[in-house]
Write a structure and sequence with these properties.
8 helices; five-stranded mixed sheet; alpha/beta; about 40% helix
Length: about 180
């Protein structure tokens, strides 16, 4: 059974964001966001769970963690796997941070306004053209700097795309939730 967190007297209680990720690249990006936003007492739990994500998996993961009613669940996945969107939509109360075809599209939106249908190989190749040595699961300091300075442009470009269609990314929803906590 999950333990309840009590708010200290006179202090604002920030929520915990539980971010469940598909792979190492998504987890690396979540760790980058933790460093970038530096919000006190905000914890983002990233957990690489591949495509085995279910409501039960999330419940079991959070079972021994202190929880608060303001805590939120996020699911960061690529939509290049058949039937993954249907599986993710079955998990009630979670915010979907999905990219179609892959997380590299979200990174690419920091550099250009890409609107044509694409596949994961195209997105990875485009990222390598813009960042020599780019490898999945590893965000270089140079890439993190670009992701940081061009974040607003990527959010605007991603919002203009149709969610869940190719190409699209809803990762901006996590950025907006983090910005909301700064207010």
């Amino acid at each position: 059974m999950a333990r309840k967190r009590r708010a200290p007297k006179g202090k604002k209680m920030n929520p915990t964001f539980f971010v469940f990720c598909e792979g190492e690249t998504e987890e690396a990006y979540v760790h980058f966001l933790k460093r970038h936003f530096r919000l006190p007492s905000i914890q983002i739990h990233s957990r690489v769970s591949r495509n085995k994500i279910t409501a039960r998996y999330i419940k079991n993961y959070k079972q021994d963690k202190p929880q608060h009613e303001k805590d939120r669940d996020f699911l960061m996945y690529d939509l290049d796997v058949p039937k993954i969107l249907a599986r993710l939509k079955k998990i009630k109360g979670a915010t979907l941070l999905v990219s179609n075809p892959c997380i590299e599209l979200w990174f690419l939106l920091h550099f250009k306004n890409h609107q044509g249908e694409c596949d994961p190989d195209f997105c990875t190749r485009e990222m390598r053209n813009r960042n020599k040595g780019y490898q999945k699961g590893d965000l270089s300091t140079k890439l993190e700097e670009k992701l940081s300075t061009k974040m607003d442009q990527a959010v605007t470009r991603a919002k203009a795309l149709e969610p869940f269609q190719n190409p699209s990314s809803t990762v901006y929803r996590l950025i907006e939730a983090l910005l909301e906590l700064r207010k």
